[in-house]
Protein backbone atom coordinates (compact mmCIF):
# COMPACT_ATOMS: atom_id res chain seq x y z
CA UNK A 1 0.00 0.00 0.00
CA UNK A 2 1.46 3.39 -0.94
CA UNK A 3 2.79 5.21 2.10
CA UNK A 4 1.74 8.52 0.57
CA UNK A 5 -1.84 7.71 1.54
CA UNK A 6 -0.99 8.77 5.08
CA UNK A 7 -0.19 12.30 3.93
CA UNK A 8 -3.00 12.30 1.39
CA UNK A 9 -5.49 11.62 4.19
CA UNK A 10 -4.82 15.07 5.65
CA UNK A 11 -6.86 16.51 2.77
CA UNK A 12 -9.75 14.04 3.04
CA UNK A 13 -12.51 13.25 5.47
CA UNK A 14 -13.41 9.94 3.77
CA UNK A 15 -11.00 7.25 2.58
CA UNK A 16 -12.70 4.10 1.26
CA UNK A 17 -10.26 1.61 -0.29
CA UNK A 18 -12.06 -1.61 0.58
CA UNK A 19 -12.12 -4.66 -1.71
CA UNK A 20 -9.25 -3.53 -3.93
CA UNK A 21 -6.71 -6.36 -3.44
CA UNK A 22 -4.31 -3.88 -1.90
CA UNK A 23 -1.12 -5.39 -0.49
CA UNK A 24 1.56 -4.18 1.87
CA UNK A 25 1.16 -2.53 5.25
CA UNK A 26 -0.92 0.25 6.73
CA UNK A 27 0.78 3.62 6.24
CA UNK A 28 2.68 4.89 9.24
CA UNK A 29 2.59 8.50 8.16
CA UNK A 30 -0.86 9.76 9.15
CA UNK A 31 -0.18 13.42 9.82
CA UNK A 32 -1.36 15.32 12.85
CA UNK A 33 -4.48 17.46 12.72
CA UNK A 34 -5.84 15.65 9.67
CA UNK A 35 -9.57 15.69 8.96
CA UNK A 36 -10.07 11.98 8.30
CA UNK A 37 -13.41 10.74 9.66
CA UNK A 38 -13.88 7.46 7.79
CA UNK A 39 -11.15 4.92 6.95
CA UNK A 40 -12.19 1.66 5.27
CA UNK A 41 -9.52 -0.84 4.20
CA UNK A 42 -11.73 -3.92 4.49
CA UNK A 43 -11.21 -6.94 2.26
CA UNK A 44 -7.64 -6.45 1.04
CA UNK A 45 -4.35 -8.29 1.48
CA UNK A 46 -2.87 -5.93 4.06
CA UNK A 47 -0.25 -7.45 6.35
CA UNK A 48 2.00 -6.27 9.14
CA UNK A 49 0.86 -4.26 12.15
CA UNK A 50 -1.70 -1.57 12.79
CA UNK A 51 0.12 1.74 12.61
CA UNK A 52 0.03 3.76 15.82
CA UNK A 53 0.05 6.92 13.72
CA UNK A 54 -3.70 6.41 13.31
CA UNK A 55 -4.09 8.16 16.67
CA UNK A 56 -3.29 11.38 14.78
CA UNK A 57 -6.72 10.99 13.17
CA UNK A 58 -8.55 12.64 16.07
CA UNK A 59 -11.69 13.18 13.96
CA UNK A 60 -11.96 9.49 13.05
CA UNK A 61 -15.44 7.98 13.54
CA UNK A 62 -15.19 4.76 11.53
CA UNK A 63 -12.17 2.43 11.29
CA UNK A 64 -12.73 -0.77 9.30
CA UNK A 65 -9.65 -3.00 8.89
CA UNK A 66 -11.57 -6.26 8.65
CA UNK A 67 -10.80 -9.21 6.36
CA UNK A 68 -7.09 -8.67 5.93
CA UNK A 69 -3.93 -10.48 7.06
CA UNK A 70 -2.84 -8.15 9.82
CA UNK A 71 -0.67 -9.84 12.45
CA UNK A 72 -0.58 -7.85 15.65
CA UNK A 73 -1.84 -7.59 19.21
CA UNK A 74 -4.87 -5.56 20.22
CA UNK A 75 -4.29 -1.88 19.27
CA UNK A 76 -4.74 -0.24 22.68
CA UNK A 77 -3.72 3.15 21.37
CA UNK A 78 -7.02 3.43 19.51
CA UNK A 79 -8.83 3.86 22.82
CA UNK A 80 -7.81 7.51 23.00
CA UNK A 81 -9.55 8.46 19.74
CA UNK A 82 -12.31 10.70 21.12
CA UNK A 83 -14.88 10.29 18.32
CA UNK A 84 -14.40 6.67 17.29
CA UNK A 85 -17.83 5.04 16.92
CA UNK A 86 -17.17 1.97 14.80
CA UNK A 87 -14.17 -0.34 15.15
CA UNK A 88 -14.01 -3.43 12.94
CA UNK A 89 -10.94 -5.66 13.17
CA UNK A 90 -12.61 -8.96 12.27
CA UNK A 91 -11.00 -11.78 10.29
CA UNK A 92 -7.33 -10.97 10.75
CA UNK A 93 -4.48 -12.66 12.60
CA UNK A 94 -4.64 -10.59 15.76
CA UNK A 95 -3.67 -12.40 18.94
CA UNK A 96 -2.90 -12.13 22.63
CA UNK A 97 -4.82 -10.69 25.55
CA UNK A 98 -7.25 -7.81 25.38
CA UNK A 99 -6.06 -6.27 28.64
CA UNK A 100 -7.74 -3.67 30.80
CA UNK A 101 -8.09 -0.18 29.48
CA UNK A 102 -5.36 2.37 29.95
CA UNK A 103 -7.18 5.64 29.27
CA UNK A 104 -10.18 7.15 31.02
CA UNK A 105 -13.46 6.63 29.14
CA UNK A 106 -11.81 4.35 26.61
CA UNK A 107 -14.02 3.67 23.58
CA UNK A 108 -16.86 5.54 25.26
CA UNK A 109 -18.39 6.48 21.87
CA UNK A 110 -18.24 3.00 20.30
CA UNK A 111 -21.47 1.76 18.75
CA UNK A 112 -20.02 -1.22 16.89
CA UNK A 113 -17.11 -3.25 18.27
CA UNK A 114 -16.23 -6.26 16.12
CA UNK A 115 -13.03 -8.25 16.75
CA UNK A 116 -14.42 -11.62 15.68
CA UNK A 117 -12.45 -14.32 13.87
CA UNK A 118 -9.05 -13.64 15.39
CA UNK A 119 -6.87 -15.39 17.96
CA UNK A 120 -7.48 -13.26 21.03
CA UNK A 121 -7.23 -15.16 24.32
CA UNK A 122 -7.66 -14.74 28.07
CA UNK A 123 -10.64 -13.24 29.86
CA UNK A 124 -13.16 -10.95 28.22
CA UNK A 125 -12.21 -7.25 28.64
CA UNK A 126 -14.52 -6.42 31.55
CA UNK A 127 -13.27 -2.87 32.07
CA UNK A 128 -13.76 -2.01 28.43
CA UNK A 129 -17.38 -3.09 28.78
CA UNK A 130 -17.67 -0.78 31.78
CA UNK A 131 -16.53 2.11 29.62
CA UNK A 132 -18.79 1.62 26.59
CA UNK A 133 -21.07 4.50 27.49
CA UNK A 134 -22.84 4.77 24.13
CA UNK A 135 -23.87 1.12 24.34
CA UNK A 136 -25.56 1.84 27.66
CA UNK A 137 -28.02 4.39 26.28
CA UNK A 138 -30.37 4.28 23.31
CA UNK A 139 -30.31 6.94 20.59
CA UNK A 140 -33.83 8.23 20.11
CA UNK A 141 -32.96 10.38 17.09
CA UNK A 142 -32.19 7.96 14.29
CA UNK A 143 -29.97 9.40 11.59
CA UNK A 144 -27.53 7.92 9.07
CA UNK A 145 -23.86 8.36 9.84
CA UNK A 146 -21.90 10.38 7.29
CA UNK A 147 -19.04 12.78 6.83
CA UNK A 148 -19.75 16.17 8.35
CA UNK A 149 -17.96 18.10 5.64
CA UNK A 150 -18.86 15.78 2.78
CA UNK A 151 -22.62 15.59 3.16
CA UNK A 152 -23.22 13.62 -0.03
CA UNK A 153 -21.31 10.62 1.38
CA UNK A 154 -22.96 8.19 3.82
CA UNK A 155 -20.79 5.68 5.68
CA UNK A 156 -21.07 1.99 4.82
CA UNK A 157 -19.64 -1.16 6.40
CA UNK A 158 -19.77 -4.92 5.96
CA UNK A 159 -20.84 -6.81 9.04
CA UNK A 160 -22.42 -10.03 10.31
CA UNK A 161 -25.99 -9.19 11.30
CA UNK A 162 -28.17 -11.86 12.88
CA UNK A 163 -25.94 -14.59 11.49
CA UNK A 164 -25.80 -13.25 7.94
CA UNK A 165 -22.90 -11.34 6.35
CA UNK A 166 -24.38 -8.21 4.83
CA UNK A 167 -23.25 -4.79 3.70
CA UNK A 168 -24.78 -1.82 5.43
CA UNK A 169 -24.86 0.84 2.73
CA UNK A 170 -26.10 3.19 5.42
CA UNK A 171 -25.23 2.97 9.11
CA UNK A 172 -28.03 3.94 11.45
CA UNK A 173 -26.89 5.91 14.47
CA UNK A 174 -29.11 3.70 16.63
CA UNK A 175 -27.28 0.44 15.93
CA UNK A 176 -25.27 -1.18 18.75
CA UNK A 177 -23.22 -4.36 18.18
CA UNK A 178 -20.66 -6.26 20.28
CA UNK A 179 -19.05 -9.21 18.48
CA UNK A 180 -16.14 -11.14 20.04
CA UNK A 181 -16.95 -14.50 18.47
CA UNK A 182 -14.51 -17.06 17.05
CA UNK A 183 -11.58 -16.33 19.32
CA UNK A 184 -9.99 -18.14 22.26
CA UNK A 185 -11.53 -16.19 25.13
CA UNK A 186 -11.83 -18.07 28.43
CA UNK A 187 -13.39 -17.50 31.84
CA UNK A 188 -16.89 -16.39 32.70
CA UNK A 189 -19.22 -13.94 31.00
CA UNK A 190 -18.87 -10.70 33.00
CA UNK A 191 -22.04 -9.53 34.70
CA UNK A 192 -21.21 -5.95 33.64
CA UNK A 193 -22.39 -6.75 30.10
CA UNK A 194 -25.85 -6.33 31.58
CA UNK A 195 -25.19 -2.58 31.71
CA UNK A 196 -25.04 -2.33 27.91
CA UNK A 197 -28.79 -1.90 27.70
CA UNK A 198 -28.77 -0.42 24.19
CA UNK A 199 -27.12 -3.49 22.62
CA UNK A 200 -29.00 -4.97 19.70
CA UNK A 201 -26.60 -7.79 18.91
CA UNK A 202 -24.28 -9.72 21.25
CA UNK A 203 -22.14 -12.52 19.86
CA UNK A 204 -19.72 -14.42 22.13
CA UNK A 205 -19.95 -17.72 20.28
CA UNK A 206 -17.12 -20.13 19.46
CA UNK A 207 -14.87 -19.36 22.39
CA UNK A 208 -14.06 -21.33 25.55
CA UNK A 209 -16.22 -19.41 28.01
CA UNK A 210 -17.40 -21.29 31.09
CA UNK A 211 -19.60 -20.74 34.13
CA UNK A 212 -23.26 -19.75 34.08
CA UNK A 213 -25.14 -17.51 31.68
CA UNK A 214 -25.47 -14.29 33.66
CA UNK A 215 -29.02 -13.35 34.58
CA UNK A 216 -27.96 -9.72 34.07
CA UNK A 217 -28.29 -10.35 30.32
CA UNK A 218 -31.99 -10.01 30.98
CA UNK A 219 -31.37 -6.26 31.29
CA UNK A 220 -30.50 -6.01 27.59
CA UNK A 221 -34.05 -5.04 26.69
CA UNK A 222 -33.14 -3.88 23.15
CA UNK A 223 -31.37 -7.11 22.24
CA UNK A 224 -32.44 -8.63 18.93
CA UNK A 225 -29.76 -11.30 18.53
CA UNK A 226 -27.91 -13.31 21.20
CA UNK A 227 -25.38 -15.98 20.25
CA UNK A 228 -23.52 -17.85 23.02
CA UNK A 229 -23.13 -21.10 21.10
CA UNK A 230 -20.10 -23.42 21.08
CA UNK A 231 -18.69 -22.56 24.49
CA UNK A 232 -18.41 -24.47 27.78
CA UNK A 233 -21.30 -22.79 29.58
CA UNK A 234 -23.01 -24.76 32.37
CA UNK A 235 -26.05 -24.45 34.61
CA UNK A 236 -29.55 -23.36 33.68
CA UNK A 237 -30.86 -20.82 31.21
CA UNK A 238 -31.87 -17.73 33.22
CA UNK A 239 -35.61 -17.12 33.19
CA UNK A 240 -34.84 -13.41 32.79
CA UNK A 241 -34.00 -14.01 29.12
CA UNK A 242 -37.67 -14.73 28.55
CA UNK A 243 -38.37 -11.04 29.09
CA UNK A 244 -36.33 -9.91 26.06
CA UNK A 245 -39.31 -9.05 23.88
CA UNK A 246 -37.26 -7.93 20.85
CA UNK A 247 -35.11 -11.07 20.77
CA UNK A 248 -35.52 -12.63 17.32
CA UNK A 249 -32.34 -14.75 17.15
CA UNK A 250 -31.17 -16.98 20.02
CA UNK A 251 -28.39 -19.55 19.78
CA UNK A 252 -27.30 -21.41 22.94
CA UNK A 253 -26.35 -24.60 21.14
CA UNK A 254 -23.35 -26.80 21.96
CA UNK A 255 -22.73 -25.91 25.55
CA UNK A 256 -23.29 -27.94 28.72
CA UNK A 257 -26.55 -26.35 29.84
CA UNK A 258 -29.14 -28.27 31.83
CA UNK A 259 -32.59 -27.98 33.32
CA UNK A 260 -35.80 -26.57 31.87
CA UNK A 261 -35.89 -24.17 28.95
CA UNK A 262 -37.74 -21.05 30.16
CA UNK A 263 -41.31 -20.74 29.01
CA UNK A 264 -42.98 -17.66 27.62
CA UNK A 265 -43.96 -16.09 24.33
CA UNK A 266 -40.43 -15.25 23.24
CA UNK A 267 -38.89 -18.64 24.00
CA UNK A 268 -41.79 -20.41 22.32
CA UNK A 269 -40.66 -18.90 19.02
CA UNK A 270 -37.27 -20.65 19.08
CA UNK A 271 -36.92 -24.16 17.72
CA UNK A 272 -34.64 -27.04 18.70
CA UNK A 273 -31.68 -25.65 16.76
CA UNK A 274 -31.31 -22.89 19.38
CA UNK A 275 -30.67 -25.48 22.09
CA UNK A 276 -29.14 -28.52 20.38
CA UNK A 277 -25.96 -30.01 21.80
CA UNK A 278 -27.08 -29.46 25.41
CA UNK A 279 -28.06 -32.95 26.53
CA UNK A 280 -29.18 -31.79 29.97
CA UNK A 281 -31.89 -29.41 28.73
CA UNK A 282 -35.55 -30.32 28.81
CA UNK A 283 -38.71 -28.70 27.50
CA UNK A 284 -41.07 -28.72 24.55
CA UNK A 285 -38.47 -27.21 22.22
CA UNK A 286 -36.20 -30.25 22.56
CA UNK A 287 -39.04 -32.77 22.88
CA UNK A 288 -37.88 -33.85 26.32
CA UNK A 289 -40.19 -33.65 29.30
CA UNK A 290 -38.93 -32.16 32.54
CA UNK A 291 -39.29 -34.29 35.68
CA UNK A 292 -38.90 -33.62 39.38
CA UNK A 293 -36.29 -31.05 40.21
CA UNK A 294 -35.76 -30.29 36.52
CA UNK A 295 -39.11 -28.51 36.51
CA UNK A 296 -38.08 -26.26 39.39
CA UNK A 297 -36.91 -22.91 38.06
CA UNK A 298 -34.05 -21.08 39.71
CA UNK A 299 -35.15 -18.00 41.65
CA UNK A 300 -34.40 -14.73 39.86
CA UNK A 301 -31.13 -13.12 40.80
CA UNK A 302 -30.48 -9.41 40.72
CA UNK A 303 -27.90 -7.71 38.53
CA UNK A 304 -25.79 -6.95 41.60
CA UNK A 305 -25.42 -10.63 42.39
CA UNK A 306 -23.64 -11.12 39.13
CA UNK A 307 -24.68 -14.68 38.39
CA UNK A 308 -27.50 -17.14 38.66
CA UNK A 309 -26.17 -19.09 41.60
CA UNK A 310 -27.59 -19.06 45.10
CA UNK A 311 -26.45 -20.74 48.28
CA UNK A 312 -28.87 -23.59 47.78
CA UNK A 313 -28.16 -23.73 44.07
CA UNK A 314 -24.47 -24.44 44.38
CA UNK A 315 -23.95 -27.21 46.84
CA UNK A 316 -26.58 -26.90 49.58
CA UNK A 317 -29.67 -27.69 47.54
CA UNK A 318 -32.47 -30.02 48.53
CA UNK A 319 -30.63 -32.89 46.86
CA UNK A 320 -27.59 -32.41 49.08
CA UNK A 321 -29.77 -32.11 52.19
CA UNK A 322 -31.69 -35.27 51.31
CA UNK A 323 -28.53 -37.22 50.62
CA UNK A 324 -26.98 -36.04 53.89
CA UNK A 325 -30.06 -36.93 55.91
CA UNK A 326 -30.30 -40.38 54.32
CA UNK A 327 -26.62 -41.15 54.86
CA UNK A 328 -26.85 -40.05 58.48
CA UNK A 329 -29.89 -42.24 59.12
CA UNK A 330 -28.31 -45.32 57.55
CA UNK A 331 -25.07 -44.76 59.46
CA UNK A 332 -26.93 -44.41 62.76
CA UNK A 333 -28.94 -47.59 62.29
CA UNK A 334 -25.89 -49.57 61.20
CA UNK A 335 -23.82 -48.35 64.18
CA UNK A 336 -26.59 -49.21 66.65
CA UNK A 337 -26.98 -52.66 65.23
CA UNK A 338 -23.25 -53.39 65.48
CA UNK A 339 -23.05 -52.14 69.09
CA UNK A 340 -26.02 -54.15 70.31
CA UNK A 341 -24.94 -57.21 68.39
CA UNK A 342 -21.40 -57.38 69.68
CA UNK A 343 -21.56 -56.04 73.24
CA UNK A 344 -24.14 -54.78 75.67
CA UNK A 345 -23.76 -51.05 76.14
CA UNK A 346 -23.63 -50.91 79.96
CA UNK A 347 -24.20 -47.16 80.06
CA UNK A 348 -27.42 -47.58 78.12
CA UNK A 349 -28.66 -50.40 80.40
CA UNK A 350 -27.94 -48.38 83.53
CA UNK A 351 -29.82 -45.43 82.11
CA UNK A 352 -32.86 -47.60 81.33
CA UNK A 353 -32.79 -49.34 84.76
CA UNK A 354 -32.56 -46.02 86.62
CA UNK A 355 -35.44 -44.67 84.59
CA UNK A 356 -37.49 -47.84 85.29
CA UNK A 357 -36.80 -47.82 89.06
CA UNK A 358 -37.70 -44.14 89.30
CA UNK A 359 -40.95 -44.72 87.49
CA UNK A 360 -41.81 -47.70 89.74
CA UNK A 361 -41.26 -45.65 92.92
CA UNK A 362 -43.53 -42.90 91.64
CA UNK A 363 -46.24 -45.44 90.81
CA UNK A 364 -46.15 -47.04 94.30
CA UNK A 365 -46.16 -43.66 96.01
CA UNK A 366 -49.17 -42.46 94.02
CA UNK A 367 -50.98 -45.74 94.68
CA UNK A 368 -50.44 -45.32 98.43
CA UNK A 369 -51.86 -41.80 98.40
CA UNK A 370 -54.86 -42.88 96.39
CA UNK A 371 -55.61 -45.76 98.77
CA UNK A 372 -55.40 -43.49 101.84
CA UNK A 373 -57.94 -41.09 100.36
CA UNK A 374 -60.42 -43.89 99.75
CA UNK A 375 -60.21 -44.94 103.37
Automatic annotation (TrEMBL):
It is found in: Cell membrane. It is a single-pass type I membrane protein. GO terms for cellular component: plasma membrane. Keywords: Cell membrane, Glycoprotein, Leucine-rich repeat, Membrane, Receptor, Repeat, Signal, Transmembrane, Transmembrane helix. Its main location: membrane. Belongs to the RLP family. This is Leucine-rich repeat and WD repeat-containing protein 1 LRR domain-containing protein. The chain crosses the membrane at residues 316-340. It comes from Populus trichocarpa (Western balsam poplar). It holds the Pfam family LRR_6. Gene3D superfamilies: Ribonuclease Inhibitor. It comes from the Eukaryota. The keyword Transmembrane helix applies. Residues 195-289 form the Leucine-rich repeat and WD repeat-containing protein 1 LRR domain.
